[in-house]
Amino acid sequence: MKELIAQLIDTALQTLIADGTLPADIQPNIMVENTRDKSHGDFASNIALTLAKPARCNPRELAQKLCDALPPSDSIDKTEIAGPGFINFFITQASAYAVIGEILEQRETFGRVTTNSGPRVQVEFVSANPTGPLHVGHGRGAAYGATVSDLLEAAGVQVEREYYVNDAGRQMNILAVSVWLRYLELLDGELTFPANGYQGHYIRDIAHDLEKTHGDRLKRPVEQVFANIPADEPAGGDKEKHIDGLIDRAHELLGDDYGLVFDAGLNAILSDIREDLGEFGADYQVWFSERSLTSNGDVDKALQMLEDKGYLYEAEGNIWFRSTEFGDDKDRVVKRANGQTTYFASDIAYHMNKFERGFDKVINIWGADHHGYITRVKAAIQALGYDPERLIVKLVQFAILYRSGERVQMSTRSGSFVTLRELREEVGADACRFFYVTRKADQHMDFDLDLAKSETKDNPVFYIQYAHARVCSVLRKLEEQGNAWMPEAGLKNLTRLDTEAEKDLVTTLGKYPELLQNAALNYEPHLLANYLRDLAGDFHTYYNAHKMLIDDAELRNARLTLSAAVRQVLANGLKLLGVSAPEQM
After folding, report:
1. C-alpha distance from residue 103 to each of 114, 387, 496, 514, 538 (Å)
2. Which residues of 90-117 are buried (b: 16+ CB within 10 A; e: fewer)?
3. What's the half-sphere exposure (Cβ side, CA atoms, 13 Å) at 89?
4. CA atoms within a 13 Å half-sphere pointing along the CA-CB vector of 188
5. Which domains can be identified in the chain, with CATH numbers?
6. pLDDT tens for residues 269-278?
7. Each residue's pLDDT tens digit, 207-232
8. How far is it, in rounded angstroms, from Cα 55 to Cα 468?
9. Mean pLDDT across the stretch 527-541?
10. Residue 276 in 3-state DSSP?
C-alpha cells in the first residue's frame, strides 16, 4: 500500500511540474509512513513539507495542490491535510482487508521475496574455539546468527552460513595438554593439574576415549613431563609460562603422536558443537578450518600482498602491518621474531579468502569483547584492496543467566558454566531461540530461566504460541460440532468485520511484509519478535471479546478467516525465529 500511495504522489508531482507549479529540476524524496493515531488515517506523507522551500510555496497550500492532483484510486477513501502540511491517507476497507486473502493464498511465502536473486552474503557466526562445549553465552550469538541468516533469505538474499573453526594456536595446544595430562592421570594416578589448563569434566571424558583407543601408547613418566617446567601460579610461579612449558614438553615427548592427542580433543569437541548447534536450529553450509589457511598458503599469500603494497615493515625482530594508515590506533604484529605468524595474520588471510570467494557482503557476528578488533580487520581488508564497507560486523553481548533471581556464575576455563545443551533441556529450544532475540544484539540481556519456563502471558514465546494454538483449537471445535470453516465464504463477508479489534488485527497483519524486510536488511530480528508479540496480543484481545463459533454463518466464516490469517502469519514469523508453532498447548 505504501508503494501505491508513493506512486500516486509521484503522479501528482509530475502533474504539478507539468503545469509549472513545481520546478522541473526538483528532486522529491517521497516518504510514506504508517500513522500512529487512527484519527490521522492509515498512512501519512511529509512530501509537502520537504518540497515547500524549492517550490516557494506554503506547505499546507502545496499539500492541497498535491491532493487536488492525486489521480483517483479505488484504494484511497479520502485524504486530509494535517498540522503544518502532512497529507493523511485513509484507505478503503476493501483495500485494507485484501491482505487477508493474500495471506491465505500465499501461505508460507507471505511476506517473503520468492526469487533468490539478491546479493551473495556470507554470515559467519558463533565460531567459538573448540576447546569446550558451547555455553549459554554462545547461545545468543547462535540464535542471532541463525535468525539473521533466515531473515536475509526471506528478503531474497543468497546466504551462506559459515563456522570458522579455530583449530590452530595456543588455546588448542592448551586443550591438547589438558587432555594428555588427564590421560596420564588415568594411567598413573593423581598429578598436579595446571591452573591454566581446561578443568571441565569433558576433558576427562576425552581422556577416557583416548585411553580406550590408544591404550598406553601415549604414556610418558609424569616426572619427566614436569621436570624443570616453570613453577605454576599456586606455587608462586607464572601460570602462563608453566602451561607453555608443558606444551613444549608434550611436543618433545610425544613427537608425531602429539597430533593424536590434539585431534582427539579437537574432533570430540567439534563434533559436540556441530550436534549442539544442529539441535538448536543453527545449520551451516561451511565449516572452515583455520589450519587450512596455512596449509593452502593463504597466510603467506596475504602477507606477501601486503608486503608488495608497502604495508609491512620490520621492527624489534617482528613484522608489523601499518594499520595506523587506515585509522587503527597502533600498528599490529603479523609475524613474530621466531617466525610464527600471529592470530591477526590468520584473520587477514581468512578475510582475503572470504572476498576471493565472491561474496558481495561478509557479515561477521562477534562477541562484544571483540569491539576493538573491528578497526584493524577493516584496515587489513582495505590494504588488500577490498572495500571495507563490504564487511559488516555485528556485536553480540553475552546473555547473563538468572535462576530464582540469582545470577549464575560461569567460567569456561574452570569448567563452571551452564552449557547451551543444558539450557535447552531445562527451558526448551523454543524459549532459548526466542528469548535470545527479544533485544537488540548489542544490548545487555538478562535471561530469566523462571520466566522462560512459565506458562503465562508474561512469557512472550508461550503467549505467541498460545495464540497460534487457539486458532487451531477453534477450528477443531468447529469440526467437532459438525461444521466446517469455509474460507471462500469468509473472504466474501470480510465487510462484516467492523469492530475496532478486527480493524486493529487487519492493520497489524498488513505491516508484516515491510516489517520482515526491515528486520532482515537492518539485521534486527528483535523487530520480528516484538511484532509477533503485538500480533498475538491483538488476537488474544479480539478472541476474549468476540465469540468465534456463532450461529451467524457469514460472520462466523469471516471471523475464522481473519483468525486463520493471524495463525499463518504467526507460524511464518515463528519459523523464521527458529520457534515451533504448536497446534495444541
Report:
1. 14, 40, 19, 14, 17
2. bbeeebbbbbbbebbeeeeebbbbeeee
3. 29
4. 17
5. 2-91 (3.30.1360.70), 170-270 (no CATH), 460-576 (1.10.730.10)
6. 999 999 999 9
7. 999 999 999 999 999 999 999 999 99
8. 51
9. 97
10. helix
